[in-house]
Amino acid sequence: MCAKVNPSKSGQRSSTHLLSKPKLNIGCGTDKKDGFINIDKFQSVNPDAVVDVEDGLPFPDNHFTHIYCKQVLQSISPGKLEFVINEIGRVAKKGCIFELIVPFDNIMNRSSVSNLKCFTWNSFSHLEVNGHRSYYFPFNLKPLHKRTPWLIKLFFVLFPIFKRTIYLKYEIIK
Predict the structure, then answer these.
(1) Domain extent listing, the chain
(2) Residue 39 in contact with residue 48, Cβ under 8 Å?
């Protein structure tokens, strides 16, 4: 499912220029990263390209060496989340760095109308390299983030109001 990158009329860069960058910032908002293709579904934040990830990522297979995704996955329709994660895996090269910042599963985040899903440290564990093959995704994730000690996890499970987001960093294994 590789569509063409269609920059909008508001001065977005050409698709050739965009594809020369091997890094992708999904849902950039106002946090644009140098050296990345900064995409967002809202034209008002002036991304490099307007892309709704629920419709797929309009990039070639195995293109990116680094994918950054901050506060995006919680806004994906539940029926589209698996598709979007597969799209991320499709456009990622083998060994791609995949960084995520997602909302922690607590009552404040769960009650926000913009958060359709919240996450914990184990939300992506079924994709982690552990000798088991994932039948839902054609890739695995090798954790690169520092493991959170169980005592700290316990604290945030007991007092979730103090934890807003989780940072996860993986290498995509194909």
Answers:
(1) 15-173
(2) yes
Beta strands in the chain (DSSP E): 23-26, 36-40, 49-50, 64-70, 92-103, 140-143, 165-173
pLDDT digits (tens, 9 = 90+) for 105-131: 887 788 888 888 999 888 988 888 875
Give the DSSP letter string of 48-94.
Answer: SEE--GGG---S-TT-EEEEEEES-GGGS-GGGHHHHHHHHHHHEEE
Length of the chain in terms of residues written: 174
Structure tokens at 170: 């993986």
User: What gap in Å lies between CA 162 and CA 83, rounded to an integer?
Assistant: 31
Structure-token pair, residue 104: 């922690």
Reported as a single tens digit per residue, the pLDDT across 120-165 is 888 988 888 875 666 778 899 999 998 899 999 999 988 888 899 9
At the topology level of CATH, where does 15-173 sit? Rossmann fold (3.40.50)
Strand 36-40, strand 23-26: pairing: parallel
Q: Which of 127, 103, 94, 96 is nearest to 27 (CA)?
A: 103
